[in-house]
Automatic annotation (TrEMBL):
Source organism (scientific name): Lentinus brumalis
Domain of life: Eukaryota
Family: Belongs to the SLC26A/SulP transporter (TC 2.A.53) family.
Name the UniProt record assigns to this protein: Sulfate permease
Organism phylogeny: Eukaryota, Fungi, Dikarya, Basidiomycota, Agaricomycotina
CDD domains: STAS_SulP_like_sulfate_transporter
GO cellular component labels: membrane
Keywords: Membrane, Transmembrane, Transmembrane helix, Transport
Residue stretches spanning the membrane: 66-86, 93-110, 146-170, 227-244, 256-280, 354-373, 385-405, 411-431, 443-461
Role summary: High affinity uptake of sulfate into the cell.
GO biological process per UniProt: sulfate import across plasma membrane
Localisation: Membrane
Gene3D superfamilies documented for this protein: STAS domain
């Protein structure tokens, strides 16, 4: 009963009664559900990477982490207050974000070098979101509440992406695109800080970069005393770094001392300018107004500790800004962590890093923090300071706590211009160097154009537009490369090894590129009637028609038509076949088509449309040749590709029974109602008379496979066949291209070379 039902179901769906060894969805499900308990335990423990190294923590690591943590903390305090100013938030919010970032990240990190906290680009994005919400809903929500809500929502989204292991989405944004909007953002931030550096006011410092720069030039006559502090601080920062670099080269033995002298330049400049500000302003203040702009009151400790207030109406108001904020949050961090992992010899887990960022920002909202992510400058500093593990963040957190509870009275006198100098000095390192830009051009001129477009859009519009431009252009380039990949018709070159007195055949494009290989190498075409084609991309719906057109056009140009059309009247010709005056001469000079060999060594996926394109190709070339054509496939990389090709009727060596077979018809009765009578009358075609595999029964398939692919068998010492490396059910699937071509040539010899013209009409380059 069950057998009859199974046979009926197969007949309904059109399945073959012959069982083939192919991969099934059940195999895939078993693969991903194997040992679920162990996989669950591994997943849970992987959420806390600290469990893998904390038991091996020692005093040697602690000393390195202590030095690195204290060094980063000293830099982090002034930078975080500066970045809070960029975000249009009070300076204490920068300290809140810094504390939570360095403290929480160490428990979830897979990178020892990355330092989490406020960064310039994210701060500018928060400022633009606050501006956007306030313009749409004036005086409805305070800036800190908006910033905290952004941190909560973005953190939750990134956390979800990490938990679902969707970190591979980051790979869709290439390095030039990231560098482009980072460069544009750095220029935007620097231009926005110039007015603060010079004490100029009276215009929007968060407008487009070019507008801010022009307005700054116009406002130079209004420069105030703040410029003395700002310019002095900026010049001092660069001077100290330059002097330390020179001393390091002159006295290499003391390089580490000079390194820490350079590192502490931010703190040193802030301390000196703060003392100068106190000396100048302490007796010149009236009703809270001073001759220069200073931070003034910075609350002591955590004044906004507690459950965050997430207003649904606020979420709706800033929803349109969340995508760009989320992209910046994880993109900059992943790029930084991968970079330091590559340089320092370890591998980061992108999914776990996203979890770390998500948890950090979600927990940070309890402290009133705004979005925090990886900082390139502080991460580089931490790496150079000799950090040994992620635990260095604990020591940085101690520095921030000390600053919050013990140094806030001193923060009162910090000049705002000095903080602007710190910001400009920090973001200058985010601008791509000429050497880096030139490397983009050398590697890929198209990606250089994407980089340049991203910078221009960011400078003349907004960071949001710059990010969307770089992402959209990168995805468009990816789609174009997928839809229009390269493909080549191949010829043979025989390589001789004079040392071992051996030779082997390699297959290269018949028309080799002069920039790729020696153009003077003589490339011999395959045997007459055999076509070898290599496709350099997955065989998917955007590019499948490209292969069909290439092979069919090549067949019609270089092989003989099976039906003699010279005597056919114009009225009897197909509407799309006008005929040629030289048809007789052309047909005489061309060989009959016997086989098409497809090199699938670069094909990692194939879909339904791709299989249908191959079926269409087979149909068209068989109609042109008026005879069955062998299709051989070399180097199939995936069992799913093999399954799909078998479903399309390839690989078995059996004759096609339907010239218009459709694996995915447009309509239910597609062939019955669409095919015209001229082609329908040939619907049923005879089997391949010359096809040994089709003519003989299944018992002979194994021997045929061994004969057609001798290169892929393993011979014993007694010269007897001991094992096969290809499945005998599919003799037209081959392990490599050489065996596939030789199998096609053997099929050619079986039908007799007398049927073919010995001289090939295919072009040969010399």
């Amino acid at each position: 009963m069950f057998t009859a039902v199974k046979r009926t179901c197969k007949r309904i769906v059109g399945a073959s009664d012959e069982d083939m060894t192919v991969v099934t969805p059940r195999d895939w499900v078993e693969g991903i559900t194997h040992d679920p308990m162990q996989r669950t335990i591994h997943y849970v423990t992987s959420l806390f990477p600290i469990l893998g190294w904390i038991s091996r923590y020692n005093l040697g690591w602690a000393s390195g982490d202590l030095i690195a943590g204290l060094t980063v903390g000293i830099v982090l305090v002034p930078q975080s207050m500066s970045y809070a100013m960029i975000a249009t938030l009070p300076p204490e919010y920068g300290l809140y974000s810094s504390f939570v970032g360095v403290l929480v990240y160490c428990f979830f990190a897979t990178s020892k070098d990355v330092s989490i906290g406020p960064v310039a680009v994210m701060s500018l994005t928060v400022a633009q979101i606050i501006k956007h919400v306030n313009e749409a809903h004036p005086d409805t929500w305070a800036g800190p509440q908006i910033a905290t809500t952004v941190a909560f929502l973005c953190g939750f989204i990134v956390l979800g992406i990490g938990l679902l292991h969707l970190g591979w989405l980051v790979e869709f944004i290439p390095a030039p695109a990231v560098s482009g909007f980072m460069t544009g953002s750095a220029l935007n931030i620097a231009s926005g800080q110039l007015p603060g550096l010079l004490g100029i006011s009276g215009f929007d410092t968060r407008a487009a970069t070019y507008k801010v720069f022009i307005n700054t030039l116009k406002g130079l006559p209004r420069t105030k005393l703040d410029a003395a502090f700002g310019i002095t601080g900026l010049v001092s920062l660069y001077a100290i770094r330059w002097i330390c670099d020179r001393l390091t080269k002159r006295y290499p033995s003391r390089a580490r001392w000079f390194f820490f002298m350079s590192v502490f330049r931010n703190a040193f400049v802030i301390v000196v300018l703060t003392i100068a500000s106190w000396l100048y302003c302490r007796d010149r203040g009236h009703n809270g107004k001073y001759p220069i702009k200073i931070l003034q009151d910075v609350p002591r400790g955590f004044k906004h500790l507690g459950q965050p207030t997430i207003d649904p109406e606020l979420v709706k108001a800033l929803a349109s800004e969340l995508p760009v904020a989320t992209i910046i949050l994880f993109l900059e961090h992943i790029a930084i962590s991968k970079s330091f992992g590559r340089v320092n010899g370890y591998k980061i887990d992108p999914n776990q890093e996203l979890i770390a960022i998500g948890v950090t920002n979600t927990i940070g909202t309890l402290f009133g923090a705004y979005p925090a992510t990886g900082s390139f400058s502080r991460s580089a500093l931490q790496s150079k300071s000799g950090v040994r593990s992620p635990a260095s963040g604990l020591f940085s957190a101690v520095v921030v706590i000390v600053a919050l509870y013990g140094l806030t009275p001193a923060f009162f006198w910090i000049p705002s211009a000095a903080l602007s100098a710190v910001i400009i000095h920090a973001v200058a390192d985010l601008v791509a160097s000429p050497r880096q830009v030139y490397s983009f051009w050398r590697v890929s001129p198209i990606e250089f154009i994407i980089w340049f477009a991203s910078v221009l859009v960011t400078v003349f519009a907004t960071i949001e537009d710059g990010i969307y431009t770089s992402v959209a252009a990168s995805l468009a380039l990816l789609l174009v490369r997928m839809a229009r990949p390269r493909g080549h018709f191949l010829g043979r070159v025989t390589l001789h090894n004079t040392t071992e007195s051996s030779s082997r055949d390699v297959y290269i494009p018949i028309k080799p590129d002069k920039f790729l290989m020696n153009p003077h190498v003589k490339v011999y075409p395959p045997s007459p009637g055999i076509i070898v084609y290599r496709f350099e991309e997955s065989f998917l719906y955007p590019n499948s028609s490209l292969v069909n057109d290439a092979i069919v056009d090549y067949v019609k140009d270089y092989t003989k038509r099976g039906t003699d059309m010279t005597g056919v009247k114009a009225g009897d010709r197909p509407w799309n076949d006008p005929g040629k005056n030289s048809e007789v001469e052309d047909n005489t000079a061309k060989p009959h088509l016997h086989a098409v060999v497809l090199d699938f060594s670069a094909v990692s996926h194939i879909d339904t449309t791709g299989v249908q394109a191959l079926i269409d190709t087979r149909t068209e070339v068989e109609r042109w040749a008026d005879r069955p054509i062998e299709f051989h496939f070399a180097t199939i990389l995936s069992p799913w590709i093999r399954r799909a090709l078998i479903a399309g009727g390839f690989g078995t060596g059996k004759a096609t029974t339907h010239m218009h077979e459709e694996i995915a018809p447009v309509t239910r009765y597609h062939d019955q109602y669409i095919a015209d009578p001229q082609h329908c009358e040939h619907e049923e075609t005879p089997g391949r008379e010359d096809d040994t595999e089709a003519a003989k029964g299944p018992a002979h398939v194994q021997a045929i496979s061994a004969r057609s692919s001798t290169e892929v068998t393993v011979q014993s010492q007694t010269s007897e066949l001991s094992a096969l490396m290809v499945l005998p059910e599919t003799p037209f699937f081959h392990l490599d291209l050489t065996s596939a071509v030789r199998a096609a040539e053997r099929g050619l010899s079986r039908v007799g070379r007398s049927k073919f013209v010995m001289k090939s009409a295919q072009p040969v380059d010399s």
